[in-house]
Model the fold of this input.
Amino acid sequence: MDIVNHKGVFDHLLMLERAENAGLQKKQQQERLQELAATVEMLCARRDEIQAETSALKTLKDKIGQGLPIEENKIEEFVEHKQSLLTSRHMQLKDLQTAYHLIAGFDFVESKEGKSVCVTFHTAYEGVYLETYNMELDLTRTVQISRHNIPPCIPLEKITKENLQSDFKAFLQNLSLYLNALTARKQQISLIKELVGTVEVLERNQLCSFLALVCKAPLESDEAVLCTLEYADLTRSLPTHVTINSENKALLESPQWKKNQALFMESPVHSALLTMRKMGSIS
Done:
């Protein structure tokens, strides 16, 4: 009888403990929701404030551009608004500098007393750092590229129009993608020559978006196979289209070479060639 009574007491205590925990959890969730609601309200207010400042700044710039008379206090407001926006932009750059320095994407260095910033883009492939590119951005008015050593084959004008003024972070990320993809494609070609000496790189362009390779089938057949790789997506290092040609039509229709074609689409080109040699597709 005592055991039954004790069991009932324990069950009751356990029920009370669960109820207390559930109440505490619910209270914590409510507090968290209140914190998030306050944060959202603050961000919305700041957004509205920035939009109002930007609108006022645009109106004043239009008047100045048209030569219309402007009250002295409005000129002071114009200067204050512009300084506020520049300060906000500098704070954004400092945040980006800290974040991207940590992940080795790119680094920032302020110059000309904060009127410009120099960005260094680091590119790497398979854990090895390769080319480095630099760009100086003028911040005195709208953000403008003053000088750079970005390869001319990179569509910099297109990337600039898409994001430079509207989303500076996206601009840097997109440009970094293009540069790293170019470096990866170039490095793959170097690795072909280094690791797969029997494959001849017949043709390539500056952007490495087109690559023609001549492979030799195993010695018993000694057939030449032309592999053409096209990279339509310049932010990636894998081809978007692969064509394989040979005078030996039977070889092209074989299951193995159909697998090889898919392999080019799924693996870096030098890795695909090494796998093909291991499988006996090429010498």
